[in-house]
Amino acid sequence: MDELLFDALHRLLESHRIELAEQFVIEDVQWGLYEMGEGLIIPAPD
What we know:
By secondary structure, the protein is mostly helical. Helix content is about 60%, strand content about 10%.
């Protein structure tokens, strides 16, 4: 069962790879983790 689920998830992710990558970047910008032209910003721990 795990192998079947893994295969289905893998096929889903592969078929939507570009859309998912774009969505991750959009969310990173919205959350303030990414500034255009600067790359990913990882805040230093307090």
